[in-house]
Structures
1.
Amino acid sequence: MRNLLALNWKMNKTPSEARSWAAELGERYEEGNAELAVMAPFVTISTLAANLPAGVGLGAQDVSAHESGAYTGETSAAMLADVGVQYVVVGHSERRDYHGETDNVVAAKAKLVQANGLLPIVCVGEKLDVREKGQQVAYTLAQLHGSLEGVGSDVVIAYEPVWAIGTGKTATADDAEELAVAIRSALEERYGKKSSEIRVLYGGSVKPDNIASICAKPNINGALVGGASLKVADVLGMNDALKDA
Ligand code: PGA
């Protein structure tokens, strides 16, 4: 399966900065075996749709759990589809922590994303206290099941241990693989044969110098990258590292 390198910009880059970033990427980007896609803030999506190099995909970082109507400040999945988005991140730990998103809300969002022909990237992962108790597998699988309630198999899963996000602490490739194996067998139970087409990504302090060893693991099919997604040089470094993966 082709690796997906999903670049989560979080709340960084204005549309003007995004245009410069896309131009710089366009000068030096060569399509490799990995698929590249930018998860952008809502207001930069149209700018990127017009300026990203050919072959680079586009995503959003969140979406409303409602279809349309009186939800001030919200952005619907239909709106995202209309501006050229292919992927939508749902249930990122920052949304769960700072905006109180529950598994139910995450599942509702993922269903609307699919109903509009887009692929949800559903994020799951444990905090440090859970890992210290050795309960990371049970915790993450419970979160996975809750977040996939009623959700079809056209989905990407991102395992992101919260203690590794933005901290410089990367899970070892073996730690990441342990969860990827558990997630994959849960997906198989849920979706049967179709689960073999689902990508499982790892996220948490991924950089050019650790991405290859993580994505070399048989059950990991790419990465969700925050900090190292902001500089074109780092993105090119990660893309190169995945060239023959
Ligand atoms: P990080 O963020 O790469 O900066 O750790 C990953 C994420 O939150 O998706």
2.
Amino acid sequence: MQDKIRGVLFDLDGVLVDTAKYHYQAWSQLAESLGFSFTEKDNERLKGVSRQASLEILLSIGNVSLTDKQKENAMAEKNANYVEMISKMTPGGILPGALELLKELREKGIKTALGSASKNAPIILERTGLDQYLDAVVDGNRTSQAKPDPEVFLLGASDLNLKPGECVVFEDAEAGVEAGKAGGMLTVGIGHEDQLGAADALFPNLKGVSWTMITEALEKS
Ligand code: B16
Ligand code: MG
């Protein structure tokens, strides 16, 4: 490993919580109102992608063109539905193993930050109680560049007063792993080798994954 690891930067959707299912429901409703259907397989393409880029993908699937004003309205409608759903989240919405790992990191004195594309991260963190376990939060409200640009993770490292080489990024999206690498951080992929083969270490999910298991996997990389 380059430096001693002193901080972990977590993506939100797909790593700490499964909000992809709510994004899917809200985008599906919008697709239906525009006269086409949107499948769960299509939804995979939206993971880790910004709201605006997600809309463009959705419209290309439906072969629909909208004016800029109509796009603004479509995103507002989708977001209102999505916010209604995430406002009902509870700590039960945290993915298996995530809370245990956050608690272990706190006990071990390793700093933690969020690095998410979502502008709705504050509601999700508050509803699930995850906000109590994060030392810093960087979300879509603070960034101007989408992943794979490293901005979100560089801001996270800076908020923790750490050098990028002292941080590990946890990501479920290919663009997120690329962003961590571009920022000079080690990366842990959460998901499948097909998308995340570039990560320094890979786990299917965080269930039963301890900090020792993670550092051992990174040392082998
Ligand atoms: P919002 P992450 C991403 O979260 C989601 O994976 C992606 O599907 C969503 O479009 C994006 O946040 C923006 O979310 O519409 O709430 O601002 O994986 O970066 O935590
Ligand atoms: Mg994600």
